[in-house]
Design brief:
Length: about 250
């Protein structure tokens, strides 16, 4: 075996750490339907999993307008929220569609107002990577260093992978939220609709349950009988409407 072709142990470890981070990120966001909750989980997981990163934040734009963000430490929340000032590494990353690195804020001349606030909060360096979520939502993943240890090439690679993976996961969160909203709207429509609403009222009376649970019962019956929901509702209403034989 040619030992010169083998990767150093540290590089192998970096790959394993990154794979573990992406798995943890996926597990943390896979069942979430609320976008803000997903951002909170994202920045917390990234902060805890990336060595040399003291804090993590996310800057969000919706339809081109500032839409808040998330921060692993509430003290630093203003650094990620464009409503506190749009001139920032995150906005530069979003505008230029590329990763922005500021290794030493003490020598940084870009974003002067933001840099002053960041240094006052103890930030020594930052990496901002653009995140594409969907047609309406874009953002930036922000990794902050709090010590004199430099942000390395590995940090930049991790930020890039995090941003790409986070974009996919956050897009899925928004899709799930949209689907949940559509189901809620459909449920509201069904609850108010003629014969289906009557059938739901019957089930509520019979079982002493709330309307959503009654709708679930009706749906379960439709699935079991393999017939449309409306037909099940009609059968139920007709059945209970028949006069009882004396």
């Amino acid at each position: 075996m040619n030992l010169n072709t083998r990767e150093p142990m540290s590089d192998n470890l970096g790959v394993l750490e990154t794979a573990a981070l992406l798995r943890e990120l996926t597990a943390g966001l896979i069942g979430i339907t609320d976008f803000d909750e997903a951002l909170t989980a994202l920045v917390r997981i990234a902060r805890d999993a990336v060595p040399g990163v003291a804090w993590c934040g996310f800057t969000a734009l919706r339809a081109g307008e500032p839409a808040g963000g998330a921060a692993s430490d509430p003290r630093l929340a203003e650094l990620d929220d464009l409503r506190h000032g749009p001139d920032s590494p995150a906005m530069s990353a979003i505008r230029r569609r590329e990763m922005i690195l500021a290794e030493d804020l003490a020598a940084e001349s870009r974003w002067p107002a933001w840099t002053e606030r960041a240094r006052r909060l103890g930030v020594r360096g930052v990496i901002s990577a653009p995140v594409d979520v969907d047609e309406q939502m874009i953002g930036a993943m922000n990794l902050y260093a709090g010590s004199a240890e430099p942000l390395t090439t590995r940090h930049q690679l991790t930020a890039m992978l995090l941003a790409e993976h986070a974009g996919l996961l956050l897009a899925a969160v928004r899709d799930r939220a949209r689907q949940a909203a559509e189901v809620d709207q459909l449920d509201t429509t069904l609850l108010e609709e003629g014969v289906v609403g009557q059938a739901i009222g019957v089930i509520m009376t019979q079982r002493g349950c709330p309307a959503p649970e009654a709708l679930d019962v009706l749906r379960s019956a439709a699935a079991s009988l393999d017939i449309p929901l409306r037909e099940v509702a009609e059968r139920l209403v007709i059945t209970v409407s028949r006069p009882r034989e004396s």
